[in-house]
Amino acid sequence: MTAPLTNLSAVRRPVSEAQGLPNPHYIDSQMFNEEKHAVLFSSWSGLAVTADVPEIGDAVPMTFLGMPLLVIRDKSGTLRVFQNTCRHRGMILVEEPRKIEGAIRCPYHSWCYSTEGRLVSTPHVGGPGQNTHESIDRNLLGLIEVRSHIWRDVIWINIDGTALPFEDVNADLIARWAEFDKPLFHGGSDSVFQLEVKCNWKLAVENYCESYHLPWVHPGLNSYSRLEDHYHIEKQDSYSGQGTLVYRQLKGAEGQVFADFEDVGEKWNEAAEYISVYPNVLLGVHRDHAFAIVLVPESTERTVENIHLYYATPQTDDAMRAANTEQWKLVFEEDIFVVEGMQKGRHSPNFDGGRFSAVMDSPTHSFHAWVAGKIESYRATAQAAE
Amino acid sequence: MSGLDARLLDAHARDDRAALVTLYQEAADAASDQDAEGFYLTHAYVFALELGHPDMQMLHQRLKRAGREE
After folding, report:
1. CATH class of the domain at A47-149
2. Closest residue by Cα to residue A347 from A24, A34, A36
3. Residue B53 Cα, gap to closest chain A Cα (Å)
4. What are the boundaries of each domain within chain A?
5. A55-74 in b/e burial notation, b at 16+ Cβ within 10 A?
6. pLDDT digits (tens, 9 = 90+) for A45-60
7. What pLDDT, on a 0 to 100 scale, did the predictor assign at position A259?
């Protein structure tokens, strides 16, 4: 029997007794690889947003944990995620974002696929000018599709196909935010930005989960959003985060505000919530705007954060929208030294994963416990197979 | 090199796929035997498929009738 890379027994204890995930989960490439399968491939991971492929035929190649993927809006408008690999010789099909006018043609031997993934032509496969052969069953050689689901404009993928349906896994959160189940309008090119951070992807999740750091790291929020105005949000094995009771709308030069999401309810007048949807998507909702942060784990110690802002109406004031983007960018940039600092700290060999505040850190512990559970389950399955 | 060869090479060099659909059809129509015709028609069809070109269906039918396409 292979010994596990880490001992996770302390992580799933009650928060007052638990230790955080051990160092290798942040600095060891073998551990990164195990988590890739145990945590990210087996769950509904965020890949991108549908605003990345707005029109029919739009095709965007992406790499997720080393896996080449192609996100495409097919001829009927359905968004699909395929492995970006020809079924013939394994050639990458699409290298750069582009519009597919007709079919996806492999640049190597020109096997062609429809935007729905069907193999539609295999030129010269039976010899020059002969495009069929009895050994080639096109029905069995379509592009390999990755299970995907759209919610809150995020494209969620379950790579190993084992997760329960998205709506089941996230039923509680979908119900919690039912009032926000309204059309989301991406703010456009001034409402998207990217941050590259030198840390393991989990540290970005952990930092987003909790409000404990707000008065220290985001002192600008203190004037209207004090620690005691926040509350924890936790749903075991699904999500955790924080809420505020003193959200104030951004006001334009003449006191104007963004339109509210229709019928969003009085409860949200001054409330807002920020939730880490396990494993790698950070969402925020407010009466008048929302955002989605998709964390792309690039390597053990490097993560890309893709941030998108959304509104209740297709048209919004340009200056206000830019100001809102800038405001959030500042907040998220303030977090960079923290997540990168924790990453550096994880190279201390005697650091034991850390002790949690039983009162303030339970959303973070909830995430650690979920990760540990996923890994233990993966290890148990692997052990049973030996 | 024939004029058609030169125009095909030029269209490839410019990556002008619409022109390739037309030029490979021309090559197929001028072919001296059925295998050469099938070869050129295949190229015309593949570029038409890629582009969603109006000639795509016609080229598909032509190849299918010749037993060269599904």
Report:
1. mainly beta
2. A24
3. 8
4. 1-40+178-386, 47-149
5. eebbbbbbebbeebbbbbbb
6. 999 999 999 999 999 9
7. 97
Distance CA(B59)–CA(B45), nearest Å, equals: 6
**Do A236 and A227 form a contact (C-beta atoms < 8 A)?**
no
pTM: 0.95
Give the residue among A33, A7, A29 at the shortest CA–CA distance from A20.
A7
- Residues A90-102 have pLDDT tens digits of 999 999 999 999 9
Question: Looking at residue A7, what DSSP letter applies?
Answer: -
- Banded pLDDT at A212 (limits 50, 70, 90): confident
Paired tokens of A3: 């010994």
Q: For the domain bounded by A1-40+178-386, which CATH number is listed?
A: 3.90.380.10
CB pairs under 8 A between A and B: 56
**Would you call B18 an interface residue with chain A, using a CB distance cutoff of 8 Å?**
no
Q: Is B16's Cβ below 8 Å from some Cβ in A?
A: no
Region A143-154: mean pLDDT is 98
Angle between helices A201-209 and A336-345 (to 10 degrees): 120
